[in-house]
């Protein structure tokens, strides 16, 4: 199969190698085998590849967690059948010994991580949802129901942020929820007009935490996709009883983290979670994204089917261009998502042939 494999850490063009004839993944009895149509580049992908964080990895390894495609084989009694259009997040990121990710023509994935692609959604759009959409949902979950609440989403123009704003909007807007977000000036129109945020704070103009959008009234829930100084400032803006979701981001402008940096961040998060649990601090959740479809993907898919959540594709690359897609995402200013086409029509290409 065609696949792009990470063969060492470092710059994308050196680390990511295209193979025209890679060996296939073996489907396990509980897994679905997909002919992949598309994948996406999530922040975790380029961070693993670049050496941004010292995450243990057994190399070589096919990176990628997001996938969309058609079912070729499914377990006995599966809810999916051959030919179904599905999408999901395989969850291979933390399995350091797993050689197969989704930057490849064939993907084996647990049935529990997959969902049917809503009608009218393209393969590229679908492949852009799972990692970011699940994370956004799981970061909003502690504050649900969101009715009547003031929510602050940091980094609203990015992958996770764009889904968090839309989901927050879709599930609570009718009941009067209010969504504020931080972004650069070029994305103010995007986050307000296209995603539905009520207030956009341009973080490039002045300290965001001192702007009227941040100080007008306390927030009932904060989704922090930026971390570091953003977390410290955000915690001061929470209402009494307000909650906080930490996504493990390292702070604005940080381009590398050490083992000790990660340990410090995790200990800090554990400490704050404990304080929250015993009510000596705000309820605090460290989000480690769970790929199970019922933990957010099914819900986002339902909102997509109703047209309430849309995928905003910033750029679409081909599998052969994966290194360029990483380089683009790594700049840290993706608007929406970066998708990667693997095969335009996997049903025509593989269902008839097998
Ligand atoms: N814990 C988990 O399970 C989990 C899962 C997924 C992601 N994450 C983490 O969550 C973070 C966000 O991921 P992502 O996929 O959304 O990344 P992304 O798509 O690359 O986000 C980029 C966005 O961040 C915005 N941004 C950059 N600097 C900013 C700042 N100082 N203030 C406000 N916005 C800023 C950019 O907007 P402008 O261009 O307007 O600056 C851009 O739209 C990453 O650190 C990622 O590793 C964690």
Automatic annotation (TrEMBL):
Residues 12-340 form the Enoyl reductase (ER) domain. InterPro entries: ADH-like_N (IPR013154), ER (IPR020843), GroES-like_sf (IPR011032), NAD(P)-bd_dom_sf (IPR036291), YIM1/Zinc_Alcohol_DH_Fams (IPR050700). Transmembrane segments: none annotated. SMART domains: PKS_ER (SM00829). GO terms for molecular function: oxidoreductase activity. Gene3D superfamilies: Medium-chain alcohol dehydrogenases, catalytic domain (3.90.180.10), NAD(P)-binding Rossmann-like Domain (3.40.50.720). It comes from the Eukaryota. PANTHER family: ALCOHOL DEHYDROGENASE RELATED, ZINC-BINDING OXIDOREDUCTASE. This is Enoyl reductase (ER) domain-containing protein.
